[in-house]
Amino acid sequence: MATKAVLLVALSILSTIKSTVSASSFSPLRPPAIPLAVRSPYLNTWLDGDSGGILPGSWPRFWAGQITGWQGFVRVDNVTYNWMGGTCGPSLVNQTSFAYTATKSIFTFDVDGKIALTATFLSPVHPNDLLRQSMQFSYLQVSVESSDGNPHSIQIYSDISGGELSLSLAASDKSSSIKWSNGLDDDVAYHKFALAQPRVFTEEADMARWGDWYFGTTAGDGVTYRTGHSDTATREQFIGSGCLDNKVKEKHGPICDQWPVFAFSHDLGFVFKKKNVLFTIGIAQQQVINFQGSGTGSESLVGLWSTVYGSAVDCLAAFHSDWDVESQDALILDSKIHSNAYDIGGQDYASLTTLAVRQAFGSLQVAQGSRQSYLFIKEISSDGDIQTVDVIFPAHPIFLYLNPELLKLLLDPLFEHQESGHYPNTWSIHDLGLFPNAVGFPDGKDEAMPIEECSDMIIMTLAYALRSGNHQYLVKHWPLLNQWAQVLVNDSLIPAYQLSTDDFAGALANQTNLALKGIIGVRAMAEIARMSGIVNANELQLQYLETSAQYIQDWTMLGINNATKPPHATLAYNLPDTYGLLYNIYSDRLLDLDFVPEWVYTMQSNFYRTILGEYGVPLDTRRNWAKSDWQAFAAAVAEPEVRGAMHDRLTRFVEGTPTARPLTDLYDVTTGQFPKDGPSFINRPVLGAFFALLALPQR
Ligand SMILES: *[C@@H]1O[C@H](CO)[C@@H](O)[C@H](O)[C@H]1NC(C)=O
Ligand SMILES: *[C@@H]1O[C@H](CO)[C@@H](O)[C@H](O)[C@H]1NC(C)=O
Ligand SMILES: *[C@@H]1O[C@H](CO)[C@@H](O)[C@H](O)[C@H]1NC(C)=O
Ligand SMILES: *[C@@H]1O[C@H](CO)[C@@H](O)[C@H](O)[C@H]1NC(C)=O
Ligand SMILES: *[C@@H]1O[C@H](CO)[C@@H](O)[C@H](O)[C@H]1NC(C)=O
């Protein structure tokens, strides 16, 4: 800790020497990319790291890299300044600080010493309110106040561009035609735009090809707008006059034809004390997921919001008007997460957990079927699969911690799909298809990870039942759970040549860590038998207890190298010179099984101490790679001192990584860069793993 503080002082001296422009502070740290509006796989806009974490001067981007085109100006005493976005011309305001919480990114700016401007991006997170979680909208609040003791004439401008769906990187799609309109509902003025020829359940470069985009603001005196006119003409109009001409362009056309924008301006008159302006940005999709559940054909699931609000505009207006409640709720959630994390793991742990929240929840889609609600999850950036079991698994601590019912809603589609006979293999399915089409693999040819997925399903189902008290869930899914347990009984002690969740590292036989997960799965099954109270429960419990006891004993002979100093678990049996992060031991503690011998925990803690690098503990001896999610699992059950050191290294990685994109979970452990010889993961929900420590039962 002491060395870190010294380093920070040294760095800040360095930066004052290097530049005379006022430097922004970053609290609690500067992440590689900053979430702006991140609520779903499609409303997912960031400020990438090439901006240096400075809002004005760079374009906000979709997580996959496309420019989304979101501009902000402020006019002070007839002079226009840029506080967000890449438009050339007006001078950039000076950013003085950036801070993030679980739900907010807050930037403050000094404008020529005359006023202070604050831009607060709030992306609500609602673990206990599915309806509000289902509304794909996000807030931007802009506040201004005088900072030199004089009142100033102030106008605030913001626009979003057809680029929200322009797929800016794919040239072919800039020619897509869009249509637009505007309107007023209650007190909310809004622009609406959409592709002229939408295709439901279709993505292009990860962006949705269907749904209506909205940009809204509080209507009232001083509000002017411009809809669908070119970006340059609209922005010049504001720069020149401080207001807009309230005109809608009649002729709709391709996005690349003059780059239409959707703009609002607020004339605040003379401002001395603080005044606020509120914007809402978002997408409304009536149909959200195509799901093959228990029916004979796939069902088109609707956004939960659409079952309550008569129209998307009503939903938008309700969201916008709810700012007071939403910001209060966000404050409560922010402080709960921060204080719980801080109390249990200190500042490093609080910095990590709070950063993970919007990234994890931004992968979710709340859907309503004819029988129930579901949560779907997108495996963002690596394949784009839907409902990937071994992506839900690393993420699941955040859901257990915030509300275990969320985990049930994620597991439900997997159970329903397989229990209705749509998957032919005896082991658990890997995923349900490509987001947003959860139609499964009737031919059984998904990416097979038998032991990984069977164990994940059993462990997560028990974790849910333990936290929620819903034992009936175990009874309901007993046949499938028992079938998967047979796979583990058959194959987990001596795992055949196969993939584990770390599939980017390749297949391998006899993986020590994978075997441990399978064996814990068998042990968990004894608990499930007991808690379910099904016929023969006692007998079955005993069988699973005996089998797992034998397996764990054998495993300590097969998977551990005692001859080396310090001893450690190997990457795979019969390879004494290898090692791997033994992150699967985490579930033993999570489920409170007291099953894996205590000396294995101690041994691993002692070993991690010896291989801890600048940016953490490597994943295994195959390559120089590290996984932040699995380190969070391993750290959660390590000895406190080692745990603290691992969290410290993860924090250093988040601060030091040159990746400049929404936080990756896979990186080169020495450089913090994306692995040279591996995939570049971005923005994956697996960061929910940072909550591993918080999800443990409190002893
Ligand atoms: C801003 O421009 C208006 C119109 O040209 C002018 O009346 C006003 O005095 C100007 N205000 C300032 C502070 O320069
Ligand atoms: C930003 O800060 C620099 C250095 O102090 C100053 O020269 C410049 O005028 C400031 N710009 C604004 C818009 O405040
Ligand atoms: C487990 O192995 C037995 C014996 O080889 C086999 O009959 C059974 O089908 C296997 N069960 C599963 C679920 O793979
Ligand atoms: C896996 O380990 C077992 C036990 O040591 C051994 O008998 C078997 O040959 C190994 N399998 C492979 C493919 O190396
Ligand atoms: C390593 O040591 C532990 C405890 O001393 C023991 O239980 C385990 O069986 C040993 N493993 C091997 C492979 O010798």
Automatic annotation (TrEMBL):
Name of the protein this chain belongs to: Glutaminase GtaA
Domain Glutaminase A central: 346-694
PANTHER family: GLUTAMINASE A, GLUTAMINASE A-RELATED
UniProt entry keywords in alphabetical sequence: Signal
Annotated ranges, domain Glutaminase A N-terminal: 103-339
Secretion signal span: 1-23
Alphabetical list of InterPro entries matching this protein: Glutaminase_GtaA, GtaA_central, GtaA_N
Pfam families for the chain: DUF5127 (PF17168), GtaA_6_Hairpin (PF16335)
